[in-house]
Structures are given as structure tokens and as C-alpha cells.
Specification:
Leucine-rich Repeat Variant, 16 helices, globular, mainly alpha, about 0% strand, single chain
Length: about 260
């Protein structure tokens, strides 16, 4: 009832404001009670409970994130991703965004929780089918989670490449309505992160080049070329960065469509 919602709201605010309270929530096994609320029949309680978990893991140490992930479990996360209430689904993608933030160890935690990187990526990508009705906010959040995973190691980038994400990039980059601005931006960030080379070592650049070739074959480079006049300045800037990466990895004279350059006589 209302008293339960009030109590949940108080805990939600406390764990955001006081890091010491966060530790106590984990130690006192209050975490299990919060997770139970994510399974409530009341959509407001579910939403508030996931929001509390978001606040709990925000800028938290890895052990707090691990305790939270273990408490809710991967099946619980998957169920919430497909919650009929879009506000709840949006909150759980925000939770995943926080859990996959800051370090490769955070991404590894989620990979282990899901039972593998491909399972992790495929479940997230499952909410990105442009043919299914869905809130652009959920698209944005899901794409941002994948963008965070793509900031990781070569293995993490491989999960994104093999988990069905590349085929979804062009459809989301083509969403030109104002409400889809942020999902276009997030899709562009995925391209940038997949093509980023942390070091100039051949093993790193060869992986990035292979990813660039595959994305080019799927029409991503050509789509980005057509977006240089995007109505959003933020999108334009990210498009410029992504195009630079393609040209840097595949050559300035390479045709975005994949054809060999026409050489002068």
C-alpha cells in the first residue's frame, strides 16, 4: 500500500545520498527485501524498487554491484527488461547502464551473471527490433548499455559484434524523428566505441579494422555519410567522429559503399 511505497521511497533516497547507508543495506540483507519488491504486482512498487537498486549501485564499489546482481539474478533482470510497464523496463536498462559503467571488471561481472557475453548482448538487443512498437527512451537506454559494453576489451567488443547489434545500427540511425534523436546518438556512440583503438598495436588495429569492414558491408558507413546534416548538433559531431574512424581504419579513398576506389588513368 501507500506506507510500503513511502518506505521504498525513503530507502531509495537514502542509498543515493549516503554511501555508508549503501554498505549497511547490503550487510543488513535489506537488499533481498528490495529485490522482492521488483516482483510486486504493483507497477509503481516495481519501478521504485528498481530505481532503489539504481541508486544503490551508482558509483558503488564492485562488491556492492556484485551483491546487487546476485540478489536480483539474470532471469530477474531479463524479466524486468520485458516488463509490460515501460517505466519499469526503462529503469532496469538504467540499472544495466550503471552496472556496465567505469571499468572492464564491471562488464565482466554482467557477462558472468548472464552466463556469457553473447547472452548478455542478445537479451539487450532483443528490445531493439525497430519493427516492434517500443518507446524511443527504451531504445536509447538499451543502445547506451551496448555502447558501454563496446568500450571494453576486444572480447567485449566481439560480444557486441556477434550478438546481433551490427544489423540493428542502420535501422536506428535512420530513425530521423525528433523523439529518436538520442537513440541515433547512442547508435553512433556504439560505432565509435567499436572502432576505437586504445593502442596502435597490430593486434588492436586489426580487430578494429575487421569490425570496420563488417560495419561497412552492413551499410553503416554509407548511412553515416548521409547524416552529416542531421538536425541534431550532437549527432552531427558523433557522426563526424565515426566517419573519421572509418577513414582512418579503411583508407580515405575507400568508397563508403565498399567498392574499390576508382584510380585515375
Amino acid at each position: 500500500g501507500d506506507s510500503l511505497k513511502a518506505a521504498a521511497t525513503s530507502v531509495c533516497n537514502l542509498v543515493l545520498d549516503f554511501s555508508k547507508v549503501t554498505e549497511q543495506v547490503v550487510k543488513a540483507k535489506v537488499l533481498g527485501n528490495i529485490v522482492e519488491l521488483t516482483r510486486s504486482m504493483d507497477h509503481e512498487l516495481r519501478c521504485m524498487a528498481v530505481s532503489t537498486l539504481n541508486n544503490l549501485v551508482y558509483q558503488a564499489d564492485l562488491h556492492v554491484k556484485a551483491a546487487t546482481v546476485n540478489a536480483i539474478g539474470w532471469p530477474g533482470i531479463c524479466e524486468l527488461m520485458h516488463d509490460p510497464d515501460e517505466a519499469v523496463a526503462c529503469e532496469v536498462f538504467t540499472l544495466l547502464l550503471t552496472l556496465c559503467h567505469r571499468a572492464n571488471a564491471d562488464i565482466d561481472l554482467m557477462v558472468a551473471s548472464a552466463g556469457g557475453g553473447l547472452e548478455l548482448v542478445r537479451q539487450i538487443a532483443g528490445r531493439l527490433d525497430p519493427c516492434r512498437p517500443c518507446s524511443p527512451v527504451i531504445w536509447k537506454q538499451a543502445l547506451l548499455v551496448l555502447s558501454n559494453i563496446a568500450t571494453g576489451t576486444e572480447e567485449h567488443k566481439g560480444f557486441v559484434m556477434e550478438g546481433g547489434v551490427p544489423e540493428l545500427l542502420v535501422p536506428h540511425l535512420q530513425q530521423r524523428t525528433p523523439e529518436c534523436e538520442h537513440s541515433r546518438l547512442a547508435a553512433a556512440w556504439i560505432v565509435i566505441n567499436l572502432l576505437y583503438c586504445e593502442t596502435p598495436e597490430p593486434s588492436t588495429t586489426s580487430g578494429a579494422r575487421a569490425r570496420a569492414q563488417r560495419l561497412q558491408a552492413l551499410g553503416v558507413w554509407a548511412q553515416l555519410e548521409s547524416m552529416q546534416d542531421d538536425p541534431s548538433q550532437d549527432v552531427q559531431e558523433r557522426v563526424t567522429t565515426a566517419l573519421w574512424s572509418f577513414k582512418h581504419l579503411l583508407g580515405e579513398d575507400r568508397d563508403p559503399q565498399g567498392a574499390a576506389p576508382i584510380l585515375p588513368d
